[in-house]
Amino acid sequence: MFLSSWFVIALALLAANLPFLNERLFALVPLKGSDAAGGKPLWLRLIEVLVMYLLVGAVAYLLESRAGNTFAQGWEFYAITLFLFVVLAYPGFVWRYLRKRHG
Q1: Per residue in 9-29, pLDDT tens?
Q2: Which of 35, 36, 57, 74 has its CA 20 to 30 A from that of 29?
């Protein structure tokens, strides 16, 4: 169980930053009309973050169910984990939007 917990944390860190590190939709599908200067719009990146949150949650639920009984969670759990996921996405956001470009 210890290893699966660290796997979920590492997966969440990677998945939270993935939308900010590339110009493809879910890092797989090239977008038409996205030039190098503009790239993906922010609203599309935020939708990707939300979908990645749901995918990481599904993986975590699968690992928990394979380890034993799953625990019922209320809305508070999902609100807190969503905001933690957004905090994990902060380095990618800074790299994409707040970093000064020299040149």
Answers
A1: 999 999 999 999 999 999 898
A2: 57
Task: Record the pTM.
Answer: 0.87
Query: Is residue 101 classed as helix, strand or coil in its secondary structure?
Result: coil
| Token digits of residue 40 | 């993906």
Report the alpha-carbon distance of residue 103 to residue 99 in Å, rounded. 13
> How sure is the predictor about 90, in pLDDT bands with cuts at 50, 70 and 90?
very high
Quick one: which of 37, 61, 52 has its CA closest to 82?
52
Alpha-helical regions (H) of the chain: 2-21, 42-67, 75-88, 90-93
Helix or strand run (H / E) with residue 75: helix 75-88
Q: Nearest Cα to 64, choosing from 5, 11, 6, 12?
A: 5
Q: Are 15 and 56 in contact (CB under 8 A)?
A: yes
CA 8 to chain centre: 12
